[in-house]
Hints:
About 25% of the residues lie in helices and about 25% in strands. It has 6 helices and 7 strands. It is globular, with a radius of gyration of 16 Å.
Amino acid sequence: MTEKNPTNWEQHYLDQETPWDKGRPAPGLAAFLKNHPAPTGRVLVPGCGLGHDVRALSAAGGDETEVIGFDLSPTAMKIAGDFAKVGREHFLTGDYFNLPDELHGSFDWIWEHTCFCAINQEDRKTYVEACATALKPGGHLLAVFYLNPYDEEHLPGEGPPHGCSLEELKELFGGSFEISEQWQPDDAYPGREGKELMMILKKR
Length: 204
C-alpha cells in the first residue's frame, strides 16, 4: 500500500485473497509468445504478482533475456521467487511510482498486464511516466489493457479493476509513446473475451 495506491495488496496475499491470479500466464501473452519473437534484453513486469507472466517471458526469451518481476507485495515476491527458475528471471519488491534510480532507462521492454487496471484512475499519468522512466529510448511497452471489466455487480467507478477506452489510452500514452500495433486478442481468461486490447507502444 502506498499513498497513491490505497489498496493493501500485501494483505490480499497474506489472506490468500487473490482472485486476479489465475495460476498461469495471461492468455494474450501466451499467444503472443507463440506467434512472435520473444522480447529480448531486459524486460520489466510491474505488478507481476506471483510471476506467471515473468516466467513465461523468461522461458521464451532464453539466455538473451533478463526478466525482472516487480511488485508492492513482499509476500507475492517471496512466493514468486520460490518457483523453480526457468531462465534469468528474478523478483524485486518496490513501488512502481518510485522506481530505484538504478532501474531508470535500463529496460528494453515492459510487459503490462493488470497493473494499469489496478491503480487508481487518477494515477494513470504517473503510471505512463513510470513506464517512460524505466524504458531505454526506443524501448517497447507490450500491454494487454482491460477495456471493460464491468458487470451487474461491478460498476464504473468501483474497482479495481478499472476499465479504460482506446481514446483514453491514446491520450495518456501519446506524449511519450507511439502506437506500433494494436489488436484484440483471440485468447482471454473466461469472461474477458472481447473486453481486452493488446498494444505495442514504442518510447519516443
